[in-house]
Amino acid sequence: MLALYPTRYGVAYALFGSPSQMIDFGMGNVQPINNRKVMKRIKAYIDHFKPNVLITRNLEDLRGRKSKRTQALIDAICSEAKDQNLEVHSYSRTQIREVFNEFGAESKYEISHKIIEWFEELKGYEFPVRKKWMAENYNVGIFDAVSLAIVHWYYED
């Protein structure tokens, strides 16, 4: 299963074999950012990892709040996955919060620490608490991608 989470830096990914087996993760940095280059990176991930399930952010969750670029990118990700006959699932930020609330984590920072408890290999990607004036940390996308996978298994079980 491959979870993809678009960010302002490109796309974060997390590859899982099972709920407790994270095979790979990372950030596909694309600068300057544009959807054509990001989709090229995503197609390479799909070709390399050969997932049978693809998870991404819910497109409806973004309507009216996020950039048109991000909306178009998520739509392109879903189209590419369907073209390759992959099972596609998407989850909203609200669903992520609801699931992690069950484990006592609400903010992205708290969620990242809960994920680190479960996957110690992510400890080196820990980020500081974000202040209102700060841009989101580069590594947050990795935790967002992992959280999508966890939410998928939570709802699928």
Your description of this structure?
The chain has 157 residues and is of the alpha/beta class. It is built from five helices and five strands. It is 43% helix and 22% strand. A five-stranded mixed β-sheet has the order 3-2-1-4-5, with helices on both faces. Helix 3 crosses helix 5 (140-156) and helix 4 crosses helix 5 (140-156). The relative contact order is 0.19. The mean pLDDT is 91.
Quick synopsis:
The protein has 157 residues and is α/β, with parallel strands linked by helices.
Spell out the blueprint of helices and strands.
Layout: E1 2-7, E2 10-18, E3 21-29, H1 35-49, E4 53-57, H2 68-83, E5 87-91, H3 93-101, H4 108-118, H5 140-156
Parallel strand pairs: 1-4, 4-5
Antiparallel strand pairs: 1-2, 2-3
- Return the average pLDDT rounded to an integer: 91
Number of helices: 5
The 3D shape can be described as globular
Amount of beta strand? 15-25%
Strand order of the largest sheet: 3-2-1-4-5
The amount of helix comes to 40-55%
Contiguous low-pLDDT stretches (5 residues minimum) are: none
The biggest beta sheet reads:
5 strands, mixed
- The count of β-strands is 5
Name the helix and strand elements from N-terminus to C-terminus, one letter apiece.
Answer: EEEHEHEHHH
Radius of gyration: 15 Å
**What distance lies between the first and last C-alpha atoms, to the nearest angstrom?**
15 Å
Structural class: alpha/beta
